[in-house]
């Protein structure tokens, strides 16, 4: 009797889905130029998926982008009439029961909620999914694809289980379960993209997944900031953050001055101050894969060098972003008593972040990657703004940062402090190493994301022969040259 009731319940649940799926398959035939993009995270903090949506729209697709709307996406996305953003509701952590139970309830809720959202949207020829986070979105998107006849495309940014491993440890049962899940359902996709050659090889060797390397490229709005826009940004930030305010009042009371620039009231001409501080920028998600104690220790050494009489400028260090460890590091920063260094941690609007990068003198990246196989998008954006970078070293960083060409690679705080001393010695020095890196980046003339992605990846998505290929055991993972352009093999 109990078995019959379970069967009847299953039929009652599945039959509406099957009927809805059949209707959506019929509808999908009328929406061949429609793509559903899924981010089980904040859309505003998912730049790569925003660029995917913009590139697809440029190529004539209509795009429905599902994700959390905790921060504002770029204006180009909001103003594009081919892109519709559908907000998802995030279930906050429960305060009842053990942590495993809370996590399980959250996963089940997200699975059912995402299934409902996808089934009541216009069906797409393709479901384009960001991973991580892939639990439970990979399984849900695959299931919806089976019902509606949509092809599943996964863009591998990293491995979700490796990020979980930073918190729980690599051998925790939840981490091992997440790894099995990611591996099993990841192999059911029709096409896979990834961010590095190292990840492509790992997917092939250990997961038997054929993937195509698509390096991140800076979007068109990541570029050098004109001096007048720099001044406007500094004045805006100075209203809320003291490091951007003028150190002294100008002689002419109508002259507008920030810590770095001033505008002549009569001519409107903006100039840089001769004794301005150096502007160092780092962006972060404030997670376990970025150890900001390295930067704080390097700043302490830099401060000591300044006190010892070395010819170094005062320093404004701006760390942008939101995340779980922000409050922890903010407390550490407030405990420091710097005399020549000011640190602030603003949360910038989407339009102001590229302007800040294009105004800075140096970028610092502390991203180490939980898997060692992904590259930091923040460095890509910095390079787009011709901003030299010092980056902490890890397994595949050489695919992006070329030591002594477009930046420097360091191992610890001692090495970073020595690099800061070398780069900022006699600042601003037109013949110094910092300026040479800037010239190298300016002369590189890389393709922007929207151009390179449309030219190289969309033909792959449209090619029905490649879609559906699965990598068999021991099958070499080597994309054909006809599909894999030279520009993808050289990120910078």
Automatic annotation (TrEMBL):
The keyword Zinc-finger does not apply. It comes from the Eukaryota. Pfam families: Glycos_transf_1 (PF00534). Residues 274-426 form the Glycosyl transferase family domain. It is found in: Endoplasmic reticulum membrane. CDD domains: GT33_ALG1-like. It is a single-pass membrane protein. Its main location: endoplasmic reticulum. Keywords: Endoplasmic reticulum, Glycosyltransferase, Membrane, Phosphoprotein, Signal-anchor, Transferase, Transmembrane, Transmembrane helix. It catalyses: an N,N'-diacetylchitobiosyl-diphospho-di-trans,poly-cis-dolichol + GDP-alpha-D-mannose = a beta-D-Man-(1->4)-beta-D-GlcNAc-(1->4)-alpha-D-GlcNAc-diphospho-di-trans,poly-cis-dolichol + GDP + H(+). Signal peptide: none annotated. This is Chitobiosyldiphosphodolichol beta-mannosyltransferase. It comes from Pan troglodytes. The lineage of its organism: Eukaryota, Metazoa, Chordata, Craniata, Vertebrata.
């Amino acid at each position: 009797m109990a078995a019959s009731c379970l069967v009847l319940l299953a039929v009652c649940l599945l039959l509406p889905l099957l009927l809805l799926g059949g209707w959506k398959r019929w509808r999908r035939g009328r929406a061949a130029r429609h793509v559903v993009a899924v981010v089980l995270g904040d859309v505003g903090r998912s730049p790569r998926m925003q660029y995917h949506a913009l590139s697809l729209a440029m190529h004539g697709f209509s795009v429905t982008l599902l994700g959390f709307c905790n921060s504002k996406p770029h204006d180009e996305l909001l103003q594009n009439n081919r892109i519709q953003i559908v907000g998802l509701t995030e279930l906050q952590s429960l305060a009842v029961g053990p942590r495993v139970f809370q996590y399980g309830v959250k996963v089940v809720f997200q699975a059912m909620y995402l299934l409902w959202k996808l089934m009541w949207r216009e069906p797409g020829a393709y479901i384009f999914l960001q991973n991580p986070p892939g639990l439970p979105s990979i399984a849900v998107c695959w299931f919806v694809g089976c019902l509606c006849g949509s092809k599943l495309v996964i863009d591998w940014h990293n491995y979700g289980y490796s990020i979980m491993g930073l918190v729980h440890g690599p051998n925790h049962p939840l981490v091992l379960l997440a790894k099995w899940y990611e591996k099993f359902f990841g192999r059911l996709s029709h096409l896979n993209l990834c961010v590095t050659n190292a990840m492509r090889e790992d997917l092939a060797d250990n997961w038997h997944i054929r993937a195509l390397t698509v390096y991140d490229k800076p979007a068109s709005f990541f570029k050098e900031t004109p001096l007048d826009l720099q001044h406007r940004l500094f004045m805006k930030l100075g209203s809320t953050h003291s490091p951007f305010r003028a150190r002294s009042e100008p002689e002419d009371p109508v002259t507008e001055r920030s810590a770095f620039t001033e505008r002549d009231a009569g001519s409107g001409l903006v100039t840089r101050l001769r004794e301005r501080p150096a502007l160092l920028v780092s962006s972060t998600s404030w997670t376990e894969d970025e150890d900001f104690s390295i930067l704080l220790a390097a700043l302490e050494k830099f401060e000591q060098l300044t006190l010892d009489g070395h010819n170094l400028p005062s320093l404004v260090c701006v760390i942008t972003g939101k995340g779980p460890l922000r409050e922890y590091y903010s407390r550490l920063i407030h405990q420091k008593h710097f005399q020549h260094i000011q640190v602030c941690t603003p949360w910038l609007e989407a339009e102001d972040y590229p302007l800040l990068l294009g105004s800075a003198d140096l970028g610092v990246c502390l991203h180490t990657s939980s898997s060692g196989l992904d590259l930091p998008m923040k460095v890509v954006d910095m390079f787009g703004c011709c901003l030299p970078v010092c980056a902490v070293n890890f397994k595949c960083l050489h695919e992006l940062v070329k030591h002594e060409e477009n930046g420097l690679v360091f191992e610890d705080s001692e090495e970073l402090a020595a690099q800061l001393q070398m780069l900022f010695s006699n600042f601003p020095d037109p013949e110094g190493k910092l300026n040479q890196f800037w010239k190298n980046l300016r002369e590189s003339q890389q393709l922007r994301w929207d151009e390179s992605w449309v030219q190289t990846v969309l033909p792959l998505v449209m090619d029905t022969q490649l879609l559906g290929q699965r990598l068999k055991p021991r099958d070499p993972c080597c994309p054909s040259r006809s599909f894999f352009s030279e520009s993808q093999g050289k990120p910078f």
